[in-house]
Amino acid sequence: MIEKLNSLVDDISTLNSKLVLLIGPPRSGKSNLLVQLAARRKMRVLSLGATLGGELLTVPSTRRHLQAADIFRDLADDFASHGLLLIDNIELLFDKTLQVSPLELLKRHAHARRVVAAWPGDIREGRLSYATTGHPEHQDYGIDGLVPFKIH
Q: CA-CA distance, 24 to 16, in Å (whole number)?
């Protein structure tokens, strides 16, 4: 599977939006696959929850929604290497108080560089989802502008 992902990362360099989402249930190996890809390419994986969360703790809660996207951009610049950014643990982006669209934020960064991110949700009938319907953080998206990489 790592061979297929590694090849895909090279292949997407010519696309307008260079976003690959690793999609699979919890404990399906998304994080492990990112770690393997990082090792092959001699780079680091941005663990967004811990890193962005730590940065946001220094910002007053009333201003976090104003600075979340800028802090994310700075972290992405720090972790990107050779035109590639690897991201894991993106659940914090779904926090409603941050007022960001997780998928749109990832897509925006995928215009400038290739982005491979672990998606903590599911894909069904051409729709990408996070959390179950009725959950306060539930999100549902079309898959335009991204390359799904399903892990079983």
A: 25
Dig out the tokens for 127 from the structure. Answer: 């729709």
Burial of 22 (C-beta count, 10 Å sphere; 0-12/13-18/19+): buried
- Domain 2-150 classification at class level: alpha beta
Give the model confidence (pLDDT) of 76-106 as tens digits. Answer: 999 999 999 999 999 999 999 999 999 999 9
Measured between alpha carbons, how far is 96 from 138 in angstroms, rounded to an integer? 10
Distance CA 122, CA 148 (A): 10
Counting as low any pLDDT under 50, the low residues of the chain are none
3-state SS assignment for residue 39: helix
Q: Which residues are CB-contacts of 143 (< 8 A; sequence separation ≥ 6)?
A: 123, 126, 127, 128
What single-letter DSSP state applies at residue 44?
-
